[in-house]
Amino acid sequence: xxxxxxxxxxxxxxxxxxxxxxxxxxxxxxxxxxxxxxxxxxxxxxxxxxxxxxxxxxxxxxxxxxxxxxxxxxxxxxxxxxxxxxxxxxxxxxxxxxxxxxxxxxxxxxxxxxxxxxxxxxxxxxxxxxxxxxxxxxxxxxxxxxxxxxxxxxxxxxxxxxxxxxxxxxxxxxxxxxxxxxxxxxxxxxxxxxxxxxxxxxxxxxxxxxxxxxxxxxxxxxxxxxxxxxxxxxxxxxxxxxxxxxxxxxxxxxxxxxxxxxxxxxxxxxxxxxxxxxxxxxxxxxxxxxxxxxxxxxxxxxxxxxxx
Length: 308
Description:
Layout: H1 2-20, E1 45-52, E2 62-71, E3 77-88, E4 91-105, E5 111-125, E6 142-157, E7 160-166, E8 192-199, E9 207-217, E10 222-233, E11 238-247, E12 254-264, E13 267-276, H2 281-284, E14 287-294
Antiparallel strand pairs: 1-2, 1-14, 2-3, 3-4, 4-5, 5-6, 6-7, 7-8, 8-9, 9-10, 10-11, 11-12, 12-13, 13-14
């Protein structure tokens, strides 16, 4: 019975995988959605995330990610990278990316960055874990390697940013997770487009940080929007916020609660909880995300604050 339930969960999540891979705390780690974000904090920045989806369901999907980025001595150039692992029942995806950003200083406080991303992903399907007939040729253990690349633009000042990215410009269909996995699409009509923007409002003890993320999934012909609002208290030590995520033909709207603590100048810890407003939201449970960012060099906030 347990294998049957896991098998059903596995097939359900495969259909939702392109949108379930999103992190809710991308507002403090823009590298996960845009390679041009690399180096924008003007410091070596190391971040890690752990996500567990459908927390009330046995064999719930999990996703771990480690990212790093930094400007080089030539401050026009920045490098970054991501390593991730996603597991959904019998499905596992291991991936890594290398990011290169070239930055143009438009003025003392404004920068336009161009980013390139190269990604390698290894997808595995182990149907032996599920209640399927191992002799059935449809359900064979598969492993496929899928390279990819992406592009991004990112303009930012200390109190405003706007970015456009296509993080994966090679599109693979679900049917490509087979022993061959050779078919792919390079069509701009199938890209995933992501447009994001945000600002910091206020200079006193309480600041407001609204932001928005617009996404268009070309392959699914779906449009999604995230509306985010965060407030900073106690000299930017406590960040409290919420998001409302809507859109997508087969995805219910979601509400997200976020808390982030600047424990010390070098260390930030964050937690978010996503709750689906659909019929299965209570039964399946929400999504938990833990985020940690470490930056070993102290940033003098009064001179050069970094809110994004």
